[in-house]
Design a protein that fits this description.
10 helices, 225 residues, 75% helix
Amino acid sequence: MNGWWVTDVLSSWGPAFLVSWIVWIVVSITLHELSHGWAAIRLGDDTPIHTGHMTWNPVVHLGVWSLLIFALIGIAWGAMPVDPSRLRGRHGDAKVAFAGPLMNIGLALACCVGAVVWAAAVHRFGIDEPLGTNVWHFFYIGAFLNVVLAVFNLLPVPPLDGSRIVGSFSHEYARFMSGPNGQWVGLGMFVVVFWTAGQFLWPLGQGVAMKVIGFGLSLFGVPPL
């Protein structure tokens, strides 16, 4: 694929895949960031409320630059302002950081269930094509994308959630990464991970999604679509 990602997706997989991808990117990132906010509020930090980020509006969570990059190359990111000094209890920052990937894991499982239920409905009620396949692919895309997002965000590389989790348990790691040398190291690591992680994350996400969906289909005796 050498052109604009939208035209590449349309020519390779069709409009249903494109719509599914856009919907799940926006929904998954929005819920990921809201989960950070909900966890922070529960642990005593009301920064997400005062900054106006506890909203269902995806524009607030993704921001202008993320939306621009999404329009250009089809990937995006989000942000949730949190003040770790206000969090109650031990390892509060780790708990808030883990809440985002945990939401992605929950979404992936929900999509796998949706794919199994929809496949059963297609066979039971004889739902016509292309509706049957398109809706199934909608759930499948949501499943593998959220597996990818969960694993990617758990990598211990700044500014990903995994680095905050490790930093909460290792003060040496946190001090190094917050220093000038650590920031450059973190930036370099992130660039390398960002451009190379897809080589193993995409197959991993697709494989996990298919195995979980396949298990559900076999468990209930539903033929695959």
